[in-house]
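Section: protein folds

Sequence with per-residue tokens
===
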Amino acid sequence: MTRGVKRRRSPSPVAALPPKRETLSPLSPLPDSPIASSSKAVPPESPRKTKKLKVLSDFTQTSPFPDFTSPTAQEASEVYSILATAHPQHAHGRKPPPTSPDANSATTCGKVANVIDSLIGTILSQNTSSRNSTSAKLSLDAAFGRHGFAAMAAAPRPALVDAIRQGGLANRKAGIIQGLLRAVHARHGAYSLQHLADARVSDADAMAELVGYDGVGPKTAACVLLFCLGRDAFAVDTHVFRLSRLLGWVPPRADRVQAQMHLDVRVPAELKYALHVLMVTHGRACKGCKGGAARGGDCPLKKYLKERKGVKEEDVEAKADEAEDEARAAAG
């Protein structure tokens, strides 16, 4: 080798490769989306969260029972008309969330403008009466202030439990609420989920983020989408599940989550809000379509099955009993 001449190094094979592009999963937000721009580092997903997200990603556009064709759009429209006639005071179109500071998110199924407040109210409504959840939300606001999310997150767990005790399952719900608030702050740097109200965030992405928080299931998330965010989602609570069983709208093997995935695909978007409200209203008010002691009572849906669908009376009563049993088992 000649002195004074430096030997040129061959470029590294690794360095010569183009930069590796990050692969986004189907549920990952786009780089310029409101979800991505507001996100911070998030802890690894738990197996339970991963399972929830997989269920959603698998059945966002298709039913878990693609060969089960009920309800058709016509059947959904027929039942809407029957229930609208039976409960005209609830047969109205969607209204925006109230802006009053006195609006109670537990009373309104999460129908308030603030997304976290909507989530908390819906969580408090789980497995209890409207009266109890309303009282728990009033007590929570009195103890920590309306939208006092930072104070709730930082409080000792017993203080939160005491504030919501009258709502039932207080220890569990307090843990969910505090876990939710801390996870939101860790992810977004603020106690806010208002970016989900941005029209650029798809329904699927909004649902995916909501159920990504521990303790928030598809029904709770769908209520927030439907009532708070004004999205076309079909939430299935115990009343909707029981009536869907009675009507034959879901297969016998469907659980409540699968029923929601199926009905969210089958029910026309323009009917989702009103039909959910009417089915919940009817489920609470009508004694005739419940099984057990109320067996044989009058119900417009049972009349519809007998007169329009040709189901024998004894079979209708048997379906009412089965639907009642399945709904109780799912709620328990």
